[in-house]
Amino acid sequence: MKKYFFLFALALPLSLWAQYLLPNEEIIYSFETKAGKKMTLVKDKHDQYIQYRFGSKNHVDMQFPAERTKDSWKKFKYKSYMRGGGKQNAAMELNYLTFTNKGYQYQLYKTYYAEDGSYNTGITVTDSKGKETEIPGIYKTIKGCICNLEKSTLIEKEDTGL
Q1: Residue 96 forms beta bridges with which residues?
Q2: Among candidate residues 81, 53, 76, 48, the one with its CA nearest the CA of residue 147
Q3: Does the model's pTM come out above 0.70?
């Protein structure tokens, strides 16, 4: 009996994680939020689709896009900016991924500013009237990097304007 309980105890966290990562997928970028939620951006191992997932540890509240097709790549836009030179040159690294769902714009971000040594990640949600809601992430929980999208030919790149 103890043996079965032990196996169940091991399998339960794996099944909860499985909602965020299917066997044919790999993580592009993920983190936990300060409110106890989880954000995961995944792609098919053969680049057949990309998908954003957000929710509690044991339930995905939102997936975007709903369909896992090659067209999913066209629904995201990536932009980045990097300036070296350390603190004296105000070095920075900025990475953003945006998409629009049901009238809301979502922007995932990962930033570093040398001037104050700050690292940040999170999600900015903007409604149709321009009101922003910030969902701060916990930097030490990051897995992967949005910056890996820089080399992808499947995703649209935007100019940062800097």
Answers
A1: 79, 109
A2: 81
A3: yes
